[in-house]
Write a structure and sequence with these properties.
alpha/beta; 6-stranded parallel sheet; Epimerase_deHydtase; globular; NADP; single chain
């Protein structure tokens, strides 16, 4: 590794971006560039290109994105597809024009068809219909994968893509409506425990199965993939199918997840299930054999990770958006 290389982490204030910064610092990288939204508007093609050209960047981690749970995706579909398309197109194209040879694009497991065979392999991409509740976001992420593959094929770049499963951990979004399932449950159960509530309502039937990955594991996997030499990376991918799944390879039901969150937060009441709310995809489990063959596996168990996420929530709840 070259600890002096200039690395730009786009989206460093988000859950994934901040974890990548921590992991890079832990590994001894000392020249990490970050910019807030006020300092660099990633939706503005001109300013993105000027930034990358003027700072002589060696590597880019593209962790910036508009993200949210089922409610947010259903409510703001235009925002999700437009903003994610613009962010990734601006950064990837500007990186190429500025001579950045290596870039890592972070996608999402929602790129796979709603009824993809489980566990989902990388070659399931574009083989079926997407889950309707997050289709705009998924299409944007698929476009990001294809942007990377296309710049590699046409221009000889080394732009890589990793597709994480459902993430959680420090710096997550704990908004009561627009967050993903784990932060939403943590906040709901915590507030119920504080108020001595008798019950907590949870969306859906509790039957869908999901895989969850702590964001620190995701960051470690991302840097691991980025540090691989080109020959090793290409030996486990394909020019037309170059993305890599990142997950634990283990899933659980939403009911089991909710019961574990209740345990972690100290909630003693009962759970009720609102079956009028959508369940989303029946099951989403990643096939992570490609990543394991490249020498990386997750190390943070679900309950351990939930306790870490809850502790971060407790320490930062004064600054969390209501």
């Amino acid at each position: 590794m070259d600890s002096d290389k200039r690395i730009f982490v786009a989206g460093h204030r988000g859950m994934v971006g901040s974890a990548i910064v921590r992991e890079l610092e832990r590994r001894g990288y000392g020249n990490i560039l970050t910019r807030s939204r006020d300092e660099l508007d990633l939706l503005d093609q001109r300013v993105v290109r000027a930034f990358l050209e003027s700072n002589e960047i060696d590597e880019v981690y593209l962790a910036a994105a508009r993200v949210g749970g089922i409610h947010a995706n259903n409510t703001y579909p235009a925002d999700f597809i437009y903003q994610n398309l613009m962010i990734e197109a601006n950064i990837i194209h500007a990186a190429h024009e500025s001579g950045v040879d290596r870039l890592l694009f972070l996608g999402s497991s929602c790129i796979y068809p709603k009824h993809a065979d489980q566990p989902m392999r990388e070659d399931a991409l574009l083989t079926g219909t997407l889950e309707p509740t997050n289709e705009p976001y998924a299409i944007a992420k698929i476009a990001g994968i294809k942007l990377c593959e296309s710049y590699n094929r046409q221009h000889g770049r080394d732009y890589r893509s990793v597709m994480p499963t459902n993430l959680y951990g420090p710096n997550d979004n704990f908004h009561p409506e627009n967050s993903h399932v784990i932060p939403a449950l943590i906040r709901r159960f915590h507030e119920a425990a504080e108020s001595n509530a008798d019950e907590v309502g949870v969306w859906g039937s509790g039957k869908p199965m999901r895989e969850f990955l702590h964001v620190d594991d995701m960051a470690a996997a991302s840097v691991h993939v980025m540090e691989l030499d080109g020959e090793t990376y290409r030996a486990h991918t394909d020019p037309m199918l170059s993305h890599i799944n990142v997950g634990t390879g283990v899933d659980c039901t939403i009911r089991e997840l909710a019961e574990t969150v209740a345990k972690v937060t100290g909630f003693k009441g009962r759970l009720t299930w609102d079956t009028t709310k959508p369940d989303g995809t029946p099951r989403k489990l990643m096939d992570v054999s490609r990543l394991r063959a490249l020498g990386w596996e997750a190390s943070i168990g679900l309950e351990e990770g939930l306790r870490d996420a809850y502790q971060w929530f407790l320490e930062n709840r004064g600054n969390i958006r209501s």
